[in-house]
Design goal:
This protein is of the alpha+beta class. The chain folds into 3 domains: 272 residues, Thrombin, subunit H; 87 residues, Pdz3 Domain (Roll); 99 residues, PDZ domain (Pdz3 Domain, Roll), CATH 2.30.42.10. Helices cover 17% and strands 36% of the residues. Strands 22, 23, 24, 25, 26, 27 and 28 form a 7-stranded antiparallel beta sheet that branches. The protein has a 6-stranded antiparallel beta barrel with strand order 10-11-12-15-14-13. The chain has a 6-stranded antiparallel β-barrel with strand order 3-4-5-8-7-6. It is globular and about 85 Å long. InterPro entries: PDZ, PDZ_sf, Pept_S1C_Do, Peptidase_S1_PA, Peptidase_S1C. This is DegQ family serine endoprotease.
Length: 487
């Protein structure tokens, strides 16, 4: 089984659009305020069961657009001989690159998007427009516009576009509240699957707070059984009131098509990222603590009535978590009254809140429930990164290194409690590449000397160049690896 992003590679440029009606909803949709749990009910008559999604589709479909992108890809023509070990032995790894003539080809793909403002502002997925040299948007009424990329955020798989030449206000979607969504709620998914034109599918919310679905580190997806297929990426997931509750992002598939398991980025995250991309200042609060989901065994040892919450294992000095009073051994069970059951969900809840305010944490400490107020701040740049490129005759020559700090850890999507010197990149054909160092390695020790900063790394490397023999230790994937080298 695999998780697959939704866009489809196409060989054509423009596709006609058609809207398919939904079937058998439980109540007629109309623009109104958000409903509460008590308003949800089963149909009470045959007449109610014959009601249609049509009014809801007419209200929302004009806000969903088709997005066509073009990307120029350069590749070299190669022959099977370039991968032959015999040729590599005599001509080296660069043999194929030296003889392969570069060739350019145009790669086209499609996705969907949602108009969120009458001035032509559109929200879609990052992977829909990633690397695109041209972006073309087709509206529900077949009007076409070129679009500019305002900004994108790979970590949440969201992007914002702005249409060029919009002269009259466009229909825009109304935002809902994804925190009010419940499993079993009726939803519609609108997009352009397989390039057949705008299509509407119906279903229910199958699950909430799904994590581990994609490579993004901010994950708390809405799961739905409404059919989502390639091309639906960036389309709208709407509730029965016609409000946007999520942006369709991924599917869980064995065959490449819909298997009834689709995932959408919750709209509360969409709103935060959209504001940050438009303002050019996308920053998120951080916690400054690490933890794990409470398993059945942990719940028993902690004397909890059931497995729930996040068990805090460590708290960083000076972090918002520490200043709120959070301690190792605490179990965080809710943020602003909303339950959290794993570290991803805790991180997501905090990331959707506004900076310079406070989050109310519900914590279980030695069997008693307490309330903590945690300030919401951006991860700090302490210590300074001191990004540097190491050169000279040493095993680290050709590496780009940096001091790890909370801000960098947050950017890289790693534990914000991480410390030390990290390798950010390794140049091709460098001594470091031959030493098999990798981006993401932490430099632990060189020739018996502990490395705790970039400045110390430079000192030890310079002193070590007097000898040809090197003994180094790096931490990779949580394991310390050692090696001896003679240059």
């Amino acid at each position: 089984m695999q998780v697959r992003w939704i866009p489809t590679i196409l060989t054509f440029a423009t596709i006609s659009m058609a809207v398919l009606g939904g079937i058998a909803p439980l109540k007629q949709a109309q623009a109104q305020t958000a409903t509460h749990s008590d308003d949800r009910r089963l149909p009470t008559s045959q007449a109610e069961m014959k009601m249609s999604f049509s009014p809801l589709v007419k209200q929302t479909a004009p806000t969903v657009v088709n997005i066509y992108t073009k990307k120029v890809v350069s590749e070299r023509q190669r022959t099977p001989f370039f991968n032959d070990p015999f040729f590599k032995q005599f001509f080296g790894e660069q043999f194929g690159g030296a003889f392969g003539a570069p060739r350019q080809r145009v790669e086209r793909s499609l996705g969907s998007g949602v108009i969120v403002s009458g001035d032509g502002t559109i929200v879609t997925n990052h992977h829909v427009i990633d690397g695109a040299s041209e972006i073309r948007v087709v509206l529900h009424d077949n009007r076409e516009f070129d679009a500019d990329l305002v900004g994108s955020d790979e970590r949440t798989d969201l992007a914002v576009l702005k249409l060029r030449g919009v002269e009259t206000a466009l229909p825009a979607i109304t935002f809902g509240d994804s925190d009010a969504v419940e499993v079993g709620d009726l939803v519609l998914a609108i997009g352009n699957p397989f390039g057949v034109g705008q299509t509407v599918t119906s279903g229910i919310v199958s699950a909430l707070a799904r994590a581990g679905v994609t490579g993004q580190d901010y994950q708390s997806f809405i799961q739905t059984d409404a059919a989502i297929n390639p091309g639906n990426s960036g389309g709208a997931l709407i509730d029965i009131d016609g409000k946007l509750i999520g942006v369709n992002s991924a599917i869980f598939t064995k065959s490449g098509g819909s298997n009834g398991i689709g995932f959408a980025v919750p709209v509360n995250m969409v709103k935060v990222v959209m504001r940050g991309l438009i303002s050019g200042d996308l920053r998120r609060p951080w916690v400054g603590a690490s933890g794990q989901a409470v398993t059945a065994d942990l719940a028993s040892s902690l004397e909890l009535d059931r497995p729930h919450g996040v068990l805090i294992s460590a708290v960083r000095d000076g972090s918002p978590a520490l200043r709120s009073g959070l301690q190792a051994g605490d179990v965080v069970v809710a943020v602003n009254g909303l339950p959290v059951d794993n570290p991803n969900e805790l991180k997501f809840r905090i990331a959707t809140l506004e900076l310079d305010s406070a989050a109310n944490l519900t914590v279980l400490r030695r069997g008693k429930e307490i309330k903590l107020s945690m300030p919401l701040e951006v991860a700090p740049e302490r210590p300074a990164r001191e990004e540097s490129v190491i050169d000279g005759n040493n095993p680290f020559s050709g590496t780009k290194v940096s001091n790890m700090n909370p801000a960098l850890a947050d950017e890289l999507g790693v534990d914000t409690l991480s410390e030390g010197v990290i390798i950010l990149g390794v140049a091709r054909d460098s001594l470091a590449r031959r030493t098999r160092l990798q981006a993401g390695d932490y430099i632990v020790e060189i020739n018996g000397e502990k490395i705790d900063s970039v400045a110390r790394l430079k000192e030890v490397v310079k002193a070590g160049e007097r000898s040809r023999d090197w003994k180094i230790a790096v931490k990779r994937d949580g394991k310390v690896l050692t090696g001896e080298f003679t240059l």
